């Protein structure tokens, strides 16, 4: 019923994604091939703690040692990739020729920018303003199942001082290689499993609704939504369930591949202010705004929404939220009426709006937040 395309869709589209993907348990093979091509003086970018505690870092460093690779560790990345943390790497003196990013979305997004900073000896803001820069080759190893950043050309950066969070696309932000091993996600705590899994779900939903969607991204989006419906709760309840972790890793990968074609749309832009002003984790922020977003599209009869709802109905989505203990009212996070205008202004200048399948104005955005108070 769902696997059809209109003639219009098949007439003209482009699909491009240059990332080599190793899925499953072939970590060593992927690393070996990457270093053979891209060099043997590596900087490993990761977060401050969890990858050392759960042993993921040791798995990577042991492989590098076995192949006599020089590597330097840069483990200073916080949740939400930040300009100041990226710019700290300007001072790094070392003739690095490639980067390994080991972590969740903020680590991979940061690593994409750190490669550019090290390669060009300039701060990330001026590089992004100019747009004309080179990068180090990146090997991305995600340790969550949500971001999709390991296969996209995007980096989403947060500027706490100016209360802004926005995504940047650059052709050098595509990693050369992504190693998607569900084993790296086994130690994720339940809450992180929920938040990152919901981030993947919103990537898939937004990609399918995007006016840039193409027949290939659509197939990936619908399959990914089904995988999340069938596996997120199991991965949440049973952290070491291999099948659930594998299927969630696959769903996250499909979400990344799908948004590499389409980008995200209004929903991600609605979530950004929740993270910037109230420190709400990215995936949760999107999930909080998902229900009013879908209900509004039902009201204005966005046709393509029905394909999504025929796989994951609203009652099923509500059940998932209940089981994951997701509170969707803004009041639960102490967000009141007084900040909604600020949020709305923040949303209106985001590029994500452009490919949303309906005309957006300030009133619509304000009402989406108000509905959720
Ligand atoms: Fe996201």
TrEMBL record:
Q: Does the keyword Oxidoreductase apply?
A: yes
Q: Which Gene3D superfamilies match?
A: 3.40.50.1970, Dehydroquinate synthase-like - alpha domain
The record's InterPro entries line, in alphabetical order, gives: ADH_Fe/GldA, ADH_Fe_C, Alcohol_dehydrogenase_Fe
Using the record's annotation, list all stretches that form the Alcohol dehydrogenase iron-type/glycerol dehydrogenase GldA domain: 18-182
Any keyword Protein biosynthesis?
no
Domain (Fe-containing alcohol dehydrogenase-like C-terminal): give its ranges. 193-372
Q: Which UniProt keywords apply?
A: Oxidoreductase
Top-level taxon in the UniProt lineage: Bacteria
Task: Name the PANTHER family on file.
Answer: ALCOHOL DEHYDROGENASE, DEHYDROGENASE, PUTATIVE-RELATED
- The protein, known as: Uncharacterized protein
Q: Which organism is it from?
A: candidate division TA06 bacterium
Its lineage opens with: Bacteria, Bacteria division TA06
């Amino acid at each position: 019923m769902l696997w059809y395309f209109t003639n219009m869709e098949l007439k003209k589209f482009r699909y491009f994604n240059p990332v080599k993907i190793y899925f499953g348990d072939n970590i060593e093979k992927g690393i070996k091939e990457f270093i053979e091509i891209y060099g043997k003086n590596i900087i490993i970018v990761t977060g401050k703690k969890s990858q050392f505690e759960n042993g993921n870092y040791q798995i990577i460093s042991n492989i590098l040692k076995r192949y006599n690779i020089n590597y330097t560790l840069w483990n200073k990345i916080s949740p939400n990739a930040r300009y100041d943390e990226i710019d700290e790497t300007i001072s790094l003196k070392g003739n690095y020729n490639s980067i390994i990013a080991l972590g969740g979305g903020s680590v991979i997004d940061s690593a994409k920018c750190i490669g550019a900073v090290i390669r060009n000896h300039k701060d990330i803001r001026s590089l992004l303003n100019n747009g004309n820069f080179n990068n180090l080759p990146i090997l991305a190893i995600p340790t969550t199942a949500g971001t999709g950043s390991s296969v996209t050309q995007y980096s989403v950066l947060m500027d706490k001082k100016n209360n802004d969070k926005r995504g940047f696309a650059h052709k050098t932000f595509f990693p050369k290689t992504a190693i998607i091993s569900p084993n790296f996600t086994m130690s994720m705590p339940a809450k992180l499993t929920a938040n990152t899994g919901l981030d993947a779900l919103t990537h898939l939903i937004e990609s399918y609704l995007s006016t840039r969607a193409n027949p290939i991204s659509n197939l990936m989006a619908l399959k990914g939504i089904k995988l999340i419906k069938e596996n997120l709760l199991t991965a949440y309840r049973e952290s070491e369930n291999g099948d659930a972790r594998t299927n969630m890793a696959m769903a996250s990968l499909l979400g990344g591949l799908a948004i590499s074609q389409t980008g995200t749309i209004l929903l991600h832009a609605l979530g950004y202010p929740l993270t910037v002003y109230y420190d709400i984790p990215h995936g949760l922020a999107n999930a909080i705004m998902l229900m009013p977003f879908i209900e509004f599209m039902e009201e204005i009869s966005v046709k393509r929404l029905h394909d999504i709802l025929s796989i994951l109905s609203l009652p099923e989505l509500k059940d998932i939220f209940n089981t994951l203990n997701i509170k969707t009212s803004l009041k639960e996070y102490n967000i009141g009426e007084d900040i909604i205008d600020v949020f709305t202004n923040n949303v209106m200048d985001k590029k994500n709006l452009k490919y949303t399948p309906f005309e957006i104005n300030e009133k619509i955005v304000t009402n989406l937040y108000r509905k959720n108070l």
